[in-house]
Specification:
Blueprint: H1 4-14, H2 21-34, H3 36-52, E1 54-55, E2 62-63, H4 69-72, E3 77-84, H5 87-96, E4 101-105, H6 123-131, E5 138-141, H7 147-163, E6 168-171, H8 187-195, E7 198-199
Parallel strand pairs: 3-4, 3-5, 5-6
Antiparallel strand pairs: 1-2, 6-7
Helix pairs in contact: 1-2, 5-8
The structure holds zinc ion.
Zinc ion binds at residues 56, 58-59, 61, 67-68, 70-71.
Length: 201
């Protein structure tokens, strides 16, 4: 059995997405072999990440400023909110450079099998934001076209229609392959999906 510090780090790294115990084990031994300088840099980078990154209190994206640069930018169109699952999706849409509105990061999607995880989703925060922002005219549902994304979009569509009937609700056109993840979509596909978005009412 490995000594305690090794076991401990394997356990922590195994919790990262796509990292199982075998990969975690490989990481730990790579670090041990690479020496104190490299591991020290990693440790510093992690500390800096936690010290400097904030959660934007408007859109819930991660940023070193609160509100983040996008929410603070008066040149952006604040009448339009694109609802995305993760921060990486904001970056994917920004890369297309055709979207001029603002975002709301849910930090996850609704899960029927893991309801305990739904508590962390910034859904209530979205409704509160719409309520207190009379300038909002359109909500664009830009979630992944997979089962969880579809479930979440359907829920949001119904909730927005019911509680905010004055708001137009739309979703990305079906150019993205079913089951795919938005953040890995190529720019042209994403650009077309945004341009020809479907109005749901
Ligand atoms: Zn923001």
């Amino acid at each position: 059995m490995y000594s305690r510090p090794i076991q401990n780090l394997i356990r922590i790294l195994s919790k990262l997405p796509s990292v199982g115990p075998r990969t975690a084990e490989r990481f730990v031994f790579h670090m041990l072999k690479s020496g104190k300088k490299e591991v020290g840099d990693l440790s510093l980078a992690l500390q800096e990440l936690m010290r400097n990154m904030k959660s934007c209190s408007v859109c819930y994206d991660f940023s070193d400023q609160n509100p983040c640069l996008l929410c603070n930018n008066t040149k952006r169109d604040h009448t339009m909110i694109a609802v995305v699952a993760e921060s990486q999706d904001v970056q994917a849409i920004e890369k297309t450079s055709i979207y001029t509105g603002v975002y709301h990061v849910l930090r996850g999607t609704l899960r029927a099998d893991r309801e305990d995880e739904n508590n962390g989703i910034k859904m209530a925060e979205l409704f509160k934001r719409i309520q207190s922002s009379p300038e909002v005219k359109e909500i664009i549902l830009a979630l992944n076209p997979n089962m969880e994304g579809e479930t979440t979009m359907l829920f949001l569509e119904r909730a927005v229609k019911k509680n905010f009937p004055h708001i137009t609700i739309s979703r990305l056109a079906r150019g993205l392959p079913t089951g795919s993840e938005l953040q890995y979509a190529d720019e042209i596909t994403l650009e077309n999906a945004l341009k020809s978005r479907i109005v749901l009412k």
